[in-house]
Amino acid sequence: LLSVRIHRFWNTYYKVITEGVFSWLALSQQWIILLLRVLQPKEILLAIDDTCVTRSSKKAPAVAYHHNHAHKPNRPSFLWGQLSVFVALICITSHKTAAVPLLQRLIPKRGNRSKLQAGLLLTRLFTRWVGRTRPVRLLLDAWYMKGPLLRGVLACGISVIGQVRRDTVCYSPFQRTETPRRGRPAKYGPKCTFSWVEHTLTLREGHLQAYGQNQRCQFYSFTARVRFLEGRVCRMVWCRLQPEKGSWTTWCLLLSTDPELSPERIIKLYTLRWWIEPMFKELKHHCGLSETWQQSKQALARWSFVVLLAHGLSKLVALCFSPDTLKKLHPIPWRMGQPMTAGWVSHALGAVFRNVRVRPFWDRKCQKIWYPEEFLETPFQKTA
Length: 384
Description:
Helix content: 25-40%
């Protein structure tokens, strides 16, 4: 995108983004269809999370103070910026795992729109476009594991895996006795607290590849009725990890709305949610999401999605193509032993498209982009 030869001023391109007649939602729908067609996953793994893009302007749309959850030293507790909710697809190939952005929604400064409602809206859009041909699993962190979001997602036929609070009220599945008793029959069984789990269940151990290294894990697994999901039977997993040459982490409680999943599978799937955090870093600090122009919400949404699409295409090429292919096309001597990344792909595509004139491909009569055969034969013969 940045290597295309520019013939106009930046104001001209900005007017195209602002006043052009096109739908970025229709473009995102085609982007999702392309991803699923190329990757062909057996099950679709989605992750929802939010990030804050810092701004200095007071007139930017939906700009306000937001709490900084990173808690980094020498950083303010509240940031002045724009808060957006993202939906990302967790892509798993034979040699790499990464998160690819699909959709985003800006949280308004005023009104009743919250992050939970934005996440539910984006999930419903994805379900409407994709359908229910393949199983979909949604990976959430502790903040998004709340009843309003989960009940709406479950109604769409999507199973949820996420971390919940340690004091989440859950009960063992109640088995009604044959002896009649006076009064209303009991709805729940005994409460399943962590102390009850330690004294009742057997501690199990295992090893898994998580967060870039081989880690040892300990866990308790049981099925329970969750109160904030109106008594739905879920698989609950108390787990903790021990990195290589490190100490044990604190106990955390994982919830899966699919009780048939094994606890090892639940822990492994939840660790894949972390891939959305490197995606935020690449978008904001390397792909130009922090430098998007914003004078209206529509212009910001369109320009941001162009950035997401440019980053997603580079990430898709890095996932699908073998590293030897890119090394032959665009070798970087000091990175020959490193894995292929989206930045490497963007440099390679920039070297190919640097002298390409895009404007002659636009046919004003039929209002479409067409590619002459001689163009595809000469400059891209080596690339193909």
